[in-house]
Amino acid sequence: MIHRTVYMSRATRLLTDIEAQDLADRASESNKALSVTGLLLFDGRRFMQAIEGEKAAVQDLMARIRADPRHDMIAIVSDGPAARRKFGIWSMSYKRVGEGCCTTGYLNQVKTQMVDIPDLDLRAAFIGFAKLAYNDTLSDQENPEKTSDKR
Questions:
Q1: Rg (Cα) of the chain, in Å, rounded?
Q2: Are 127 and 114 in contact (CB under 8 A)?
Q3: Which pTM was predicted?
Q4: Integer angstrom CA distances of residue 59 from 37, 77, 86
Q5: Residue 40 pLDDT
């Protein structure tokens, strides 16, 4: 039986795009060795990740994630058994959302990418995360003086 955990967390500091991509690349390599698949979204402030695989592998990975100082405020969105993998083709697909890509077109792209995910709650969680980043971007554009306070 496959086990899936989906969580959100907050970055403890601003990560550059290169650092975030490096984190995703390292996760992908590690996940391949563990037969874990998933999806990682990062909006510059928050992470959202789904990981799935054998229960022990997912739980061990979550323990490492909880200990990672690059983020805190981990909130579990869902955690439990799954009939089958939803992200089976990705050892770790990574998408950077926000700043420059959070447009209506981008939201439509996320929705299109999620259409193959039959779990409606899971699909809604990832689309909602992208929407949250989109709304933050709009707020930053409307209130540029507050943008520096957030970072």
A1: 15
A2: yes
A3: 0.73
A4: 13, 15, 18
A5: 85
User: In order of start, what are the domains of the chain with their CATH numbers?
Assistant: 2-144 (3.30.70.100)
Edge-to-edge strands, sheet with 93-96? 71-82, 2-11, 46-53, 37-42, 93-96
Judge contact between 130 and 107, C-beta under 8 A: yes
Distance from CA of residue 116 to its chain's centroid? 17
For residue 38, give Cα distances in angstroms to 65, 134, 136, 145, 147: 14, 22, 25, 36, 31
8 Å CB contact between 32 and 111: no
pLDDT above 70 coverage of the chain, percent: 74
Using N-to-C axis directions, what is the helix angle for 55-67 and 17-34, rounded to 10°?
150
Pairwise CA distance, residues 118 & 125, whole Å: 13
- The SS3 call for residue 25 is helix
In contact, 77 and 8? CB cutoff 8 Å: yes
How many CA atoms, within 13 angstroms, populate the side-chain half-sphere of residue 96?
A: 15
Residue 61 pLDDT greater than 50, yes or no: yes
Pairing of strands 2-11, 71-82: antiparallel
Rounded distance between C-alpha atoms, residue 18 and residue 66, angstroms? 22
